[in-house]
Design a protein that fits this description.
The chain is mostly helical and 445 residues long. The chain has one domain. It has 19 helices and two strands. The longest helix is centred in the first third of the chain and has 33 residues. The relative contact order is 0.10.
């Protein structure tokens, strides 16, 4: 009897290591697929939950009148035949957005009759579409654990921006995320067109432009990049054509004015700076130099690390263009020569935009939508522990919900931004390119 028990015990001990060995041999691809399946399963009820939440906000929270009447007034002037941008104004001042804004809000006015409640339903639907696109991007890159996707649904301020304020920032943000999702499939031309459409709604999207340009040069040669950028520029010309042929100077100076000075009272990030300094040209130039410097440093040390630095990456793109020029015709321009990893694309775009946010002279409350949806991604790209990541996320949200902002809230927000930026700097850079063999296997599948 004792011998039987001892033999059973030996067999049970033998089973454990064998089972563990089998588990250890599970292909990484299967584990990644299982993780993504869990994330997809979790994302679906998240969308339903947020859709219900948006419906409740529209039904029970009073609408806040800010820019809607001004938008409708500007659109009405445009529809009545006004083409001089210097004459198109609303309750909040002159029209300062490119022509795409007028077309989109003309369509919204036609659909809603200019009424607020139908517009809220429309913007509520836009919020869910945008959230679905963002969840898709997060699942494709697989940077966050599945449970952290819920952070994307927890912003009181962003819900307010979409369904209680009806800002054009919401439309520009959604188009930007759609462009980014397109880039994950290496569709650079289409991504540039959608990106240009987002710029035509609001100029803040250009904060992503330096990162996008670098990605284009890494994925294509210089000639292909130029042609792709030409397509994006053509979109702007076509949209602005009625204004460019009638009053070009008024359109360009108003719609693409990069030198506007915002009111100090509404600043969320630099309220602690004295107003005379805040509105000074020296402060603006200092922030611009800091912005360009940080972009250059991140591009050289982080985004082009595996190419040997920014200058070597640009030189490689130039050599690729020169060597291929006699062999390729114009039909081949813009074709993808290298396949970039999805994570590298999203990281470069989100970090580049975040650098612009950190260095922005003034962030108004609606500007939170410019980068909120990237905050969880950025936090999980840092080497910080999970509790610190969550604390930083909560801190950002709390600062954006202080109204009106004060010296303490804006100072804390800037400190949190700098901590996140430091975390992104010390994080190891990922390898940017997809292995050609694995890429070929994926295409066969």
């Amino acid at each position: 009897m004792g011998d039987k028990l001892r033999s059973k015990a030996r067999k049970s001990l033998e089973v454990g290591p064998v089972t563990d060995h089998k588990l250890s041999k599970t292909p990484p691809a299967l584990l990644d697929r299982a993780k993504k399946n869990i994330a997809v399963i979790f994302a679906c009820p998240l969308l339903v939950f947020d859709a219900v939440l948006v419906f409740c906000i529209i039904a029970y929270v009073p609408y806040t009148k800010i820019d809607w009447d001004a938008y409708m007034s500007q659109v009405s002037q445009f529809l009545n035949g006004e083409r001089d941008y210097s004459n198109i104004e609303g309750d909040t001042g002159p029209l300062v957005y490119p022509a795409g804004f007028l077309y989109v809000y003309s369509a919204i006015q036609y659909i809603t009759g200019g009424l607020v409640h139908p517009a809220q339903i429309l913007f509520g639907s836009l919020y869910i579409i945008n959230l679905a696109i963002v969840l898709f991007i997060y699942i494709k890159t697989d940077v966050l654990p599945w449970w952290a996707l819920s952070l994307l649904c927890l912003s009181k301020r962003v819900h307010s921006i979409f369904v209680l304020r009806l800002f054009n920032d919401c439309i520009a943000t959604t188009l930007l995320h759609a462009a980014l999702a397109t880039l994950l499939y290496q569709r650079w031309w289409l991504g540039l067109i959608i990106f240009s459409l987002a710029v035509s709604i609001k100029m803040n999207v250009l904060l992503y432009a330096p990162s996008l340009l670098l990605l284009l040069l890494k994925a294509m040669d210089i000639s292909g990049t130029i042609v792709a950028l030409g397509g994006a520029g053509l979109v702007q010309i076509l949209l602005g054509f009625p204004f460019l042929v009638s009053y070009p100077l008024a359109y360009i100076s108003r719609a693409f004015n990069l030198g506007r000075v915002f009111i100090h009272f509404w600043s969320v990030n630099f309220k602690f700076v004295p107003e005379p300094v805040f509105v000074s040209k020296a402060f603006a130039v200092t922030l611009l130099i800091l912005h360009l410097g940080l972009l250059a440093i991140f591009a050289h040390k982080k985004w082009c690390k595996h190419e040997g630095g920014l200058l070597k990456a640009l030189h490689s793109a130039y050599i690729s263009t020169v060597s291929c020029f006699p062999l390729k015709g114009l039909y081949a321009y813009g074709t993808t020569s290298k396949t970039l990893k999805e994570e590298h694309i999203v990281t470069t775009m989100f970090v580049g935009n975040f650098i612009g946010i950190v260095c922005a002279r003034s962030l108004h409350y609606q500007f939170y939508s410019w980068y909120f949806f990237s905050v969880p991604y950025l936090l999980w790209k840092t080497p910080f522990p999970t509790l610190l990541r969550i604390a930083l996320f909560v801190g950002v949200e709390c600062c954006w919900n202080v109204y009106p902002s004060n010296s303490y809230s804006s100072g804390i927000l800037l400190c949190i931004h700098l901590v996140i930026l430091w975390g992104l700097w010390i994080a190891p850079p990922e390898y940017p390119y997809v292995d050609q063999k694995s890429s070929a296997k994926r295409k066969i599948k």
